[in-house]
Write a structure and sequence with these properties.
two-stranded antiparallel sheet; mainly alpha; Recoverin, domain 1; 2 domains; 3-stranded antiparallel beta sheet; 10 helices
Length: 197
């Protein structure tokens, strides 16, 4: 065990060390998209333009969250922008507190009765609304839950166990496709093997 660089993610103070390579690549690509002039710096004007294109608020007060003064927070470059290293560190610091994808998959799979990668939304909503939150956290409202599952919900697809039973007519309930959700929030974009199972 002389090799100090193992393939597992080290738990150091550097948040970038905990980002999977594929997600880090995606973060670099997002910087390139924001850096319209290809100068190696993302400016407030770059972010404002992108927010406008997405139909989001681009007021100076909104940009302050991305470009705080150089007295604290993100260190600006001389042109009022941020370079790639600063951008990556800022994003990684925001992502560091998120749960590990394997932990999320294990938690969701407890509700997955047929290992299909789908959970009945009503059952998930009931569990989230009626489970005590972690200390310092607030309980989720049904509206918040609905907004999170929105892009990952649909009618239940027939799983192997349902097909073996003849398909059944009662299994077409509204479901949350949790493997797709975990792939999306972990930066795998649905390309992970777990998301396809």
């Amino acid at each position: 065990m002389q090799n100090s660089t193992s393939s597992s993610k080290p738990r150091t103070g550097d948040p970038l060390s905990r980002i999977p390579p594929q997600q880090l690549h995606t973060m670099r690509e997002s910087f390139a998209v924001l850096d319209r002039s290809n100068t190696g710096t993302v400016t407030p004007a770059d972010v404002s333009d992108m927010l406008n294109q997405l139909g989001l608020d681009s007021a100076p007060s909104s940009l302050a969250a991305f470009f705080p003064s150089s007295t604290g927070g993100i260190t600006s470059t001389s042109g009022g922008g941020i370079n790639l290293a600063t951008y990556l560190n800022s994003l990684a610091s925001s992502l560091a507190p998120l749960s590990d994808p394997t932990e999320l998959l294990a938690a969701f799979s407890a509700f997955d009765n047929d290992d299909s990668g789908q959970i009945a939304i009503d059952e998930l909503r009931d569990a989230l609304v009626h489970t005590a939150p972690e200390p310092g956290e607030e309980r989720l409202s049904e509206r918040e839950i609905d907004s999170v599952v929105e892009g990952f919900s649909g009618r239940r697809a027939f799983g192997k166990s349902q097909l073996a039973k003849g398909g059944g007519s009662g299994g077409r309930e509204e479901v949350f496709r949790y493997r797709e959700f975990v792939a999306a929030v972990s930066g795998n974009g649905g390309s992970s093997e777990e998301a396809r199972v």
